[in-house]
Amino acid sequence: MGDGAASHPAPRYNGEDRISALPNDLLGDIITRLPFMDAARTAAFASHWRQIWRSTPLVLRDADAHLSEATHVATVARALADHPGPFHTVSLFGCRAASLDLELPEWPRLLTTKRIENLCFHNKQTQLQTTLSPLPADILCCGSLQSLSLAFWKIPDDLLLAANAFPNLRKLGLVRNDMSDQYIHRLLVSSPILEYLGLVLNGKPERVHVCSQSLRCLFLGLSKVEEFTVVDTPLLERIMFFKPPYGGTDCVRFRIASAPKLRVIGYLEPRIHKLQIGGSIIKPDTMASPGTVVPGVEVLALKVNFGVFWEVKMLASFLRCFPNVGTLHIEVLV
């Protein structure tokens, strides 16, 4: 070691706990950013840390791929049982409802009482399952939710839902749930300030009608759905289609009945989306008329196979339906 290094000895740790001396709000912010199990371990430092842990809105995610399902379930159960809430975010992907029922039978009620703001619950399916598990009714009683994502649940029409069940909900995602068009409508009516709706449907229900006075953005994955209608959506600005990962190329009738503020649509595919505006189905030879035009659309995205003459003619018809498009995106299919 040279003289330079010897003349600057490393500072020694004197045992002072400088982190605990930080303001409580800053310590709470640190705990909120930790994975749940690490956040829970801070309660073992001292009684002061345990008080901060119990008073801090936590983020609970079970997405650690290296953990077994039993560990996932035990972690979730312990979190819901021990922490008084509120929870900022709860994301559950690795837990099956049946496993949670065995570990903590009251888990649906606890999700509601812990004042969760963001809940993402994708029920884990096994290869042997042929039917979906019923969604616990308590989950639909969580009025504190600001965003909700549900996947792989059976949601029957007789499942109770209050008229104003989600007064704070702004984002709703429904992925491959077994539910009716009527229940989707009830969810929208019960969410008076909902702005973002994501629907990934696989033939159930076959026909969907979206009606919302607050909705601004629709994300749609429609596999084997026969008809999708946008009706009475005065604030809707964007409709975005995406192809579900499990495929599906059946034709979907996409109808725009009333969306006066619609500005963005994409990606429309002539081979999949049979466009209907009002009462008119758009065909290769459709000409512009008051009943076949949506003048507010400014951004349009299309997927077209230019090797298929019928699709090229449909491209021309689509452009006639949206005469004020200023930005056009075309993805070439082969």
Automatic annotation (TrEMBL):
InterPro entries cross-referenced by the UniProt entry: F-box-like_dom_sf, F-box_dom, F-box_dom-containing, LRR_dom_sf, LRR_FXL15/At3g58940/PEG3-like
Name used for this protein in its record: Uncharacterized protein
Q: What is the lineage of its organism?
A: Eukaryota, Viridiplantae, Streptophyta, Embryophyta, Tracheophyta
Residue intervals of the F-box domain: 19-58
Give the matching SUPFAM superfamilies. Answer: F-box domain, RNI-like
Q: Which residues form the F-box/LRR-repeat protein 15/At3g58940/PEG3-like LRR domain?
A: 105-330
UniProt source species: Aegilops tauschii subsp. strangulata (Goatgrass)
